Amino acid sequence: MSEQGISKRQAVLPEESGILVIGLGLIGGSLLAALREAGYKGRCYGVDLNPNEVALGRRMGLIDDGGADPAAFLSRVSLIVLAIPVMAIAPVMAQLSRLRRHGQIVTDVGSTKSAIRDQIRAGIGQVPSWLVLGHPIAGAEKSGVEAANPMLYQHHRVILTPEADTDPGALRRIEHLWRVCGAHVEQLTVERHDEVLARTSHLPHLLAFSLVDTLARQDDRLDIFRYAAGGFRDFTRIAGSDPVMWRDIYLANREAVLEALAEFETGVSELRTAVAGSDGDAMLGIFSRASHARHYFDRLLSQKSYQAMETRNVVYRAGAGGQVRGNIRVPGDKSMSHRSIMLGALAEGVTTVEGFLEGEDSLATLQAFREMGVAIEGPQAGRVVIHGVGLHGLKQPKGALYLGNSGTSMRLFAGLMAGQTFDVTLTGDESLNRRPMGRVADPLRLMGAVIDTGEGGRPPLTIRGEQRLAGIDYDLPMASAQVKSCLLLAGMYATGDTRVREPAPTRDHTERMLTAFGYPVARHNDVAHIAGGGSLRGGFIDVPADISSAAFFLVAASITPGADLTLEHVGINPTRVGVINILREMGASIELLNEREVSGEPVADLRVRHAELHGIDIPVDQVPLAIDEFPVLFIAAANARGTTRLRDAMELRVKESDRIKAMADGLDVLGVVNTVVEDGIDIVGGRYQGGEVESLGDHRIAMAFAVAALRAEGDITIRDCANVATSFPNFPALAHEVGMQVEAVAEGA
Ligand code: S3P
Questions:
Q1: How many C-beta atoms surround the C-beta of residue 184 within 10 A?
Q2: Where do the domains of the chain lie, and which CATH numbers do they carry?
Q3: 405, 512, 627: which to mutate for ligand 1, most atoms within 8 A of CB?
Q4: Taking 70 as the threshold, does the pLDDT of residue 309 lie above it?
């Protein structure tokens, strides 16, 4: 035997001296085929009551020997797999528990687990520690050993349902068995397994059997089958499965299946009502929620993303040098995109949005409203149509609302949810779950809301329904548009007036958009004021390009010799133009062309050309007006003559990352001299090298360092960049279009 042969055999189940499969059908046969394919060289035996199956198993090379009685083979094996119908397991287990030898372990493949466990307990008094109950989630409409397929388990899940006293060594061996076949092994409790399978497998099979049976019994069945196109075929494929096996499954998992069926009946009767009443909005709400879930359920399951984004992490390779020239339009404003969905959903009538940002953050808001029963069409090429349900028309979502990375969603939702009649829990990804929420929970409690937070005022937030809110006068302790907006939105549901005083002006999109929806918000100096009890009227919203995304290109062009770039249709709301003011003060050449107003917001095309920049002390009043743009402004500072000083920017420490620290760490790698203080940083401009930096999963840190590469003396590698999709999904493509050399590659590629 060759060296290679020995090592391969040792890698495949070294602990198993022989394997016995009891029940030589598709599942048992495929397991043996997969083991053979993987190089298992030990002896394999098969037991089946049907001698033809045994003979076929031999001819196919799956077993070395076989017969009808397990007892004949027990002395020759270390592992026994029960691949027989659920109802037949208990008697075989009784036999095995009498004849089993030391070290022998047993597993099964039954698709319901409680019934098997209960029968074994009834038969032999306990579930033995050497038995590991399991279930490979794989199958086919074909049956019998003839259909054995060595690839059946590749990339499929196998669920093991160990008991508290299952032998850990036995568990490890069974896990290894399935991994060798290419499966992903997971563990659930017996009860959870049965509930999950009732919904994901047993219910759909029941429906498929029923539909085919119903149609097959009609007089015109020949026509129905003749003309059955994709829909009927796709939906009913599984009705071709083994009837006996499925009868046993429903006998065994009766309770969980009945529960799943009752939920389904409620869903169908909702749809029946919608169809009977020609209620297009209700149908659209259900269908769009389902269609979104169907398209994205893998990603939603992994709680990673809402769109076709690589779930693996992404690394940017930003080549040193490059150009910045041309005309581009960056994606829609994130703040306005969120608000357009929120107000559109709560308005009376239909709202059409153009220019919507199809980024992870705003999609999180959109999906959350779908989960609260709002029918939303799109997004498609930035167009979204929202069928508003009115301020009091939301429905309780089925589970917690998952808001991804989006702080804006969570803080604004907190205000909106405080006014609802139902309880709701808001949660997010790892970064969002670290961010402070006391800043919204505290004032909302003053209004009468009942909110539980996680430790230290962090998410998840659970907001209790049915609370009467009363307006308050509130002095914001920090300049935060999110907190201000949260309170104004809650103010719509409160009795009396809500007044919010800000220590410095912050973005006022909420106030402007509420006004555009016919809900007036007054402004007296530093106080925004809303009266409760009004209503919103749906309409049309044109979301301009996001100045926060444009900022990366404003800096890119400013620092690159020969650059001349026009950014089209950018929102230039005075509460957002800090980045333009600061760059101009540093010497940048930025022209505002074609200024106009759309949907109550000022917009312009921005022409930016290369200029020599110099360091400045950033005016404190500009800090809230440029709060999201500092990462890339730090790159401008690194390319400016002299020192740039930022103070009074504590808020940067509680964004998607601690942006002062994240940027300083990266600047250190590049050799840019900087000094960090509690509320800011000093950056000394000059030449800098390339290197590898971490974005810490913060989109704006990632894009800022991609811009830095334009003037670096070496390439910059930026790690952990998948979250750029939260605000700027096509950043690498647009950067490439203007002449930058940014390439997004999957981690490890
Ligand atoms: C936002 C407000 C700002 C900003 C965030 C979006 C908004 O947050 O940083 O990206 O849409 O209201 P703060 O309110 O925490 O300053």
A1: 14
A2: 3-188 (3.40.50.720), 196-278 (1.10.3660.10), 312-328+544-746 (3.65.10.10), 334-541 (3.65.10.10)
A3: 627
A4: no
